[in-house]
Specification:
mainly alpha, 87% helix, 0% strand, transmembrane helix, transmembrane, membrane
């Protein structure tokens, strides 16, 4: 019961964090494009695109990192409770 609640909380936290990171990414990307087009320095938007790609790669890698951490946390929660239940099953009922 506790195991399922912990896993549910881990998955919920993962969804919230990844959603917030992706929302932040689209906000920053939008701001970079708007600043780049408003300034229009010599008509060259290459810098804006490079920054946008750079931020996109970092944000998506951060999203995948959080997903991987949630998988690892879920694995260790399941492993911990599996060992705990196994240890409880080995106890003698007469002790």
């Amino acid at each position: 019961m506790v195991e399922k609640k912990l896993i549910k909380h881990i998955k919920t936290l993962k969804i919230i964090l990844v959603s917030l990171i992706n929302i932040w990414f689209f906000y920053v990307l939008f701001v970079f494009y708007v600043i780049g087009y408003i300034r229009n320095i010599k008509g060259d938007h290459a810098i804006t695109h490079v920054f946008a790609i750079y931020i996109a790669l970092h944000v998506f890698s951060l999203s995948f990192f959080i997903i991987a951490l949630s998988w690892i946390a879920t694995f260790f929660v399941r492993l911990y409770f599996k060992k705990k239940h196994k240890h409880e099953n080995l106890k003698s009922p007469f002790s």
